Amino acid sequence: MRKMVFANYIIKCSDRKNSFAVIEILNMVTRRVQYTPGCVQSEIWKNEDRHEIMVSEIWRTKVDFDRYVNSILFKRFLTAMDMSSEKPKIHISECENVRGIDLIEESMKRVDILPD
After folding, report:
1. Which CATH architecture has domain 4-113?
2. Cα(9)–Cα(53) distance, rounded to whole angstroms?
3. How far apart (Å, rounded) are the C-alpha atoms in residues 81 and 22?
4. What is the CB neighbour count within 10 angstroms for residue 98?
C-alpha cells in the first residue's frame, strides 16, 4: 500500500515587513505546487497574533514528495524558511491508512466509549 505524505511547516516572522516577504515567496510557491503531479493540497495559513505562517501540504505518495523536495520550487520554499526569526517547525508524517467521514461514523457508533 502506498503512503501519503502530510507536511506542515511553521515559520515565525519577526515583523510585518518580514511576514510580507515570506508570504510573497510562499504564495508564488504554493500557486505552482498545486499543479505539481502528486500534490493533493498546498495551503498557507497566517496567525497574526503569534506572528506565524503555516504551510500545509499533502502528497499522494512519498515519491511525489521526494520529487518536490528535490525541485527548484522547494529551493524557493527553503528561502522563505530561512527568513524565519526562529528555527522553523517542521512536521512530516507518512500515512498508509488515510480515511475520511467513514472513520467518524464508525467512531460515533462505538457505545463502549461514551463520554462521561
Report:
1. 2-Layer Sandwich (3.30)
2. 8
3. 8
4. 11
